[in-house]
Amino acid sequence: MQLAMVGLGRMGLNMTYRLLKGGHRVVACNRSPQPVRKAVKAGAVGSRSLEEAVSKLKPPRVVWLMVPAGAVTRAFVEKLSGLLQPGDLVIDGGNSHYVDDAENEGKLAAKGIRYMDAGVSGGIWGLKIGYCLMLGGDPKAFKRVESALKTLAPKDGYALVGPVGAGHYSKMVHNGIEYGMMQAYAEGFSLLKAAPYGYDLRRISALWNQGSVVRSWLLELAEEAFKRDPELKGLKGYVEDSGEGRWTVLSAIERGVPTPALATALFQRFYSREKDAFANRMLAALRNEFGGHAVLPSRRPRSAYRAERGGGHAVLPSRRPRSAYRAERGGGHSMNRASR
Ligand SMILES: NC(=O)c1ccc[n+]([C@@H]2O[C@H](COP(=O)([O-])OP(=O)(O)OC[C@H]3O[C@@H](n4cnc5c(N)ncnc54)[C@H](OP(=O)(O)O)[C@@H]3O)[C@@H](O)[C@H]2O)c1
User: Fold this and answer.
1) Sheet architecture: strand order including 89-92
2) Which residues are identified as catalytic?
């Protein structure tokens, strides 16, 4: 089939490559020209604007958006509502909030244009392995794009999971679960590291990936990370979030569904960004107030507290001249370099 891929970032460009390899005709569209050149080199039809991309598709057209969620995606939907014709189809494959889907659908439906939402999982590995695709929308629209979905996904890796909104909602919960699983591994490995047995964490993750109950792709990635940097000394323990974890917890609160593991995993990420969390200072201060318990004074010259033990502050990872990490490894999520 033919479609336009709008947004040739880490996801959109690799998806374009996969579609081209599968024999589809792809009109490549991106704000900056470089990724379009790359796509054209791989066999795509290039375009310099959304208008040009739309003009290079034969009706009924399919336009796949792979741009940042929120204002950028909404602006593209708005623009497409003026460029496309009745019978055309827009698919939003970004990590949009599911509440945006009803609005986008309404805007396009007013012009007779169809809309589907696609939860896409697979990250930078999707090019090789395929992308897990969770579609929300009308079964007829789904049928229309099924051959492209088949190419993008691994075997049995795509499905229509419900009406418009259901694709992004399921991707949101998927990411909420991802937060929880990552937190569980991080805590467990932290405990192994503190144990007196000198565990080789790479070996343990490799071992657990062979038939154990907790084997998983995340654990395979942990194995890779420990292979590169056994103590993970090359990065700071600073963890970003990109929205879905928050929306998962908000939706759980709205529906009264208990999700303590997912909520804790999200809050732990917030904590990771605080160098010397106010909440922890307050805990120490209160213990000191009611029981005279020891506190570690801050490095400020005139601290209200006196050190009662010899130790100083916990320190951030030491300077490491050759970090095993780059801020953006091969398009992966950005990581903090080791302090320099
Ligand atoms: N990375 C993942 O693992 C992953 C997984 C599933 C879903 N997603 C979702 O997929 C979407 C794309 O993610 P990505 O990782 O490919 O992002 P990315 O690498 O940052 O690429 C973003 C793309 O959007 C374009 N863009 C950004 N701001 C724009 C604007 N104001 N106007 C026009 N174009 C703009 C960029 O164009 P330029 O090249 O000109 O900057 C680029 O093509 C996002 O919604 C993301 O949440 C990501």
Assistant:
1) 45-46, 25-29, 2-6, 62-65, 89-92, 114-121, 132-136, 158-162
2) 171, 178
Query: What region, left, alpha or beta, does residue 144 occupy, with left being phi > 0 and alpha being psi -120 to 50 degrees?
Result: alpha
Query: What is residue 329's predicted lDDT score, i.e. its pLDDT?
Result: 45
Q: What angle do CA 239, 242, 244 make, to 5 degrees?
A: 120
How does residue 298 score in pLDDT terms, banded at 50, 70 and 90?
Answer: confident
Q: How far is CA 56 from CA 21, 38, 91, in A?
A: 20, 18, 17
DSSP string, 279-338: HHHHHHHHHHHHH----PPPSSTT-SS---SS-----PPPP-SS-S--TTGGG----PBP
Q: Could you give the percent of the chain with pLDDT greater than 70? A: 88
Closest CA to 158 of 196, 122, 125, 182: 122
The closest alpha carbon to 13, from 1, 219, 276, 31, belongs to 31
H/E stretch holding 72 reads helix 71-83
CA of 68 to the centre of ligand 1 (A): 5
**Using a 6 Å cutoff on CB, does residue 31 contact ligand 1?**
yes
The residues with which 89 forms a beta bridge, in sequence order, are 62, 114
Q: Is the CB of 165 under 6 A from ligand 1?
A: no
162 CB-contact burial (10 Å; exposed 0-12 / middle 13-18 / buried 19+): middle
Structure pTM? 0.89
95 lines ligand 1 (CB under 6 A): yes
Output the CA 100–ligand 1 centroid distance in Å: 17
Ligand 1 in contact with 168 (CB < 6 A)? no
